[in-house]
Design a protein that fits this description.
Order of helices and strands: EEEEEH
Structural class: alpha+beta
Number of helices: 1
CATH topology: SH3 type barrels
Helix content: 10-25%
Shape: elongated
CATH architecture: Roll
Number of strands: 5
Strand content: over 45%
């Protein structure tokens, strides 16, 4: 089963190989590639799968997903 996690963008590093940065979920920070998306800004929420941001989501949807994951016993 594959699962994309909603993460808040807390750092962005723009470089020659594309945009990379850091996403945060539940106080845990992970490296994220933003190469598949355009227009990502600090504070945005993205769905992250295998280290890649695959979709931008609004904060309300991200929070609903986070609550649902917590209800299933999955923490960030």
């Amino acid at each position: 089963m594959c699962l994309a996690m909603p993460m808040k963008v807390v750092e962005i590093h723009r470089g020659e190989s594309g945009d990379e940065g850091v996403g945060e979920l539940g106080g845990v920070r992970r490296a994220v590639s933003f190469q598949l998306l355009e227009g990502i800004e600090l504070g945005d929420y993205v769905l992250v799968h295998a280290g890649f941001a695959i979709a931008k989501v609004d904060e309300e949807d991200a929070q609903e997903s986070i609550v649902a994951l917590e209800d299933c016993g999955i923490d960030g």
